[in-house]
Amino acid sequence: MTDLQAVLDSIHKELAPRIGEGKVADYIPELAKVDPNQFGLSVVTVDGKVYNVGNADVPFSIQSISKVFMLTLALGKVGEGLWKRVGREPSGSAFNSIVQLEHEQGIPRNPFINAGAIAVTDVVMAGHAPREAIGELLRFVRYLADDESISIDDRVAKSETQTGYRNAALANFMRSYRNLDHPVDYVLGVYFHQCALSMTCEQLAKAGLFLAARGSNPMTGHSVVSPKRARRINALMLTCGHYDGSGDFAYHVGLPGKSGVGGGIFAVAPGIASIAAWSPGLNKVGNSQLGAVALEMLAARTGWSVFGD
Length: 309
Ligand code: GLN
What we know:
The protein is of the alpha+beta class and 309 residues long. It folds into 2 domains: 4-63 and 199-302, 3-Layer(aba) Sandwich (Beta-lactamase), CATH 3.40.710.10; 64-195, 3-Layer(aba) Sandwich (Beta-lactamase). 46% of the residues lie in helices and 11% in strands. It contains 14 helices and 8 strands. The chain has helices at residues 4-15, 29-32, 66-78, 99-103, 114-124, 130-145, 154-163, 165-176, 184-195, 201-207, 209-212, 227-240, 246-252, 289-302; strands at residues 40-45, 50-54, 60-61, 151-152, 197-199, 257-259, 264-269, 273-278. The strands form 2 sheets. It has a 5-stranded antiparallel sheet. The protein has a 3-stranded antiparallel sheet with strand order 3-5-4. Strand 1 and strand 2 form a beta hairpin. The longest helix has 16 residues, at 130-145.
């Protein structure tokens, strides 16, 4: 049996001189203020054991990792009908690309690029006022992690509302193709709030544990989705979870994962554990630089890659 705490400690020790690498996201002014010299890693195994190292208890802005939770809600609501609104192929483009959306006539390539996530949010909003949709997501994440202290950072949401011109362009574009049912301002309001969810590595790993455990959270006993749906969400994370860095992440880490520009990465070792890494400095495609390195080390030292050990 691998001593997981020793593995985490050794990763932290080896990476310590590199903490601060990469560049924090500055297109959202509130994120530009985050101290880059932070690193956290948390692993929660399917038998309910929690392993932490570094700043695993510091809340950060989960940003695009929230797209996994919204996707889960949307699939619960409309099932496979979701795929009329959004595709399932890797984009090979930046997360906020506009060109591809025009080319594909307002149907985003997958649910994890921004356009796709905005369409997914629109689906979850059906029958709800925007405030209720945000409440539904917050309650869902708290239920998944069994932690009522999880909250939304309103300053981050406001900061992105004031500067989210590109997302506004994507949303308007989709609305023009009738792929948004709600007013653009409403959909973006919900989207910016979901991205502003603030969670620690440990909370994130716990919230996503159901994806490592055939759709049920073994810590709470809650059944969240069917095993088939969990498998499919993992497949989407593996192929699309890191935008135009998805191939590279699969090559180096070999786990389904989802990144966010807050510097977090959520990853799943199916049947074994869920993992959250965080370090605010990003690489060129907007994924956490050290987070990815830490996950590569973890996968190598545990043999958890889905492609074999
Ligand atoms: N809120 C961010 C945006 O829409 C999320 C992007 C990300 O985390 N990759 O730009």
